Amino acid sequence: MKRRIFALILAAVLSFGAMPSGARAAEEGGFIPIRTYEDQFSDVSAGDWYYETVKALYELGLTNGSGREDVFDPSGELTIAEVVTMASRLRSLYETGDSLSGRDAYGGDGGEWYQPYVLHLQALGSIGQEFEGRYDRPATRAEMAHVLAGALPQETLDPVNREAVASGYGRGRYIRDVKENTPYRDDILLLYDWGVAGGVDKKGSFQPGGRISRGEAAAMVARLAYGELRVALDWEILPLYSRKGWSMEEMVWSDGTFYASPGADEKEKIDADVRYMLAAGQRQITLEYPSGTVSKPFVDRILNVFLSAAREYVEQTYNSVTSLYYPGSGKVILTFSSSLYDESEIEYYREETMAYAIDVHDRMWAEGRITADMTEYEKAKVYFDWVCNHCRYDYGDNIMSHSGYQAFTTGLAVCDGYVAAYNLLLRLEDIDCGTWSTAKHIWTVAELDGKTYHIDPTWGDQTNGIDDRYFAMTKEFALGRF
Q: What is the rounded radius of gyration, in angstroms, for the C-alpha atoms of the chain?
């Protein structure tokens, strides 16, 4: 993380007249109100979630409204210039008790109205030249975090959420829309660390590319000024390796691409559609083809290819698909299911299977059998050994033995049960994997450290021990055996 402190400030001065200058920072770094809020803003009601924060900003003299003194415009957008302006004013308020002292120190040379505020923040090192030529456009939430992360001295805030952020973000459970390549990622994380940001949903999402509303910004600024308003994240603090709380849909990655009318031979598009469905936690895909082109033979071909694609993700439990199609409109609706469970049981077994897999994963890490310095190849071998040791082949071929659920719970499985359990463990390590099927057998295909391997835990599980020939096979060896 960067060294800089959180300081998110509300650019709520679309009427750029002078603000009251009597507010000042208290000796301990707090802020002292200079006036009383008496519901001056007609569009802010006591029941609004941002009421208290807007009230706090008004009383500090950091907003006089938007255009009119009786209108706050909580859903309005902020420009980069407005964000910079308010960051400068907050710093001035903190240092001198006069929100305009920074402007006055760098003004007098003409130019754009916001130029003195820009020069003030540049002198502080809060920003550089990154916004040249763009100050008049709406700021993204990430840009706002960046501009304001250095507005106040570092010692003014405590890292109230450091453990929660390290655990939640580090484990990939929270703030998942902030990636390593997200602009100003470190500044965004600082907001959470200091309790200035808490996220827009139960996953703590920040929506870095979205526009921030004045109401949202008001909340962040008020938390900056008043410690009692800061967000104490209630995220469960777990070891970084833990996958507790992960769900089946998180085992499949999708970039959001969906193809509405893939052909039966367009396997990449069909795979993208299946991943889109699974990543969304759904079991249905709706396709749209030109009117008059949909027939039973066409739909049968589509069904088979989509089912084959779904079988790549055997751990998801879907091994059957039905369809509704409408030749007149060209609509085809595919609904995926499982022959292993009743419709009402599918989600239960998916959740239970996931819970057992997570328990195995976390125990492997807690016991030191999986460590952070291991390669994907080494991790895959540990799980291969675990599945082979834990499971035994069900020669009675009970239907539940085709499931990852039974592989985890009783250890009794046939080939697709072995593979469902094994692939789920690999995916919990973010190892890309799928399956290879023949008429009589199925096994794993995994990408380990950039190389493709075929892995068969079923045949690896021999009565006299583990047969390592079936781990990390070449394609030629695997196809020759099966």
A: 29
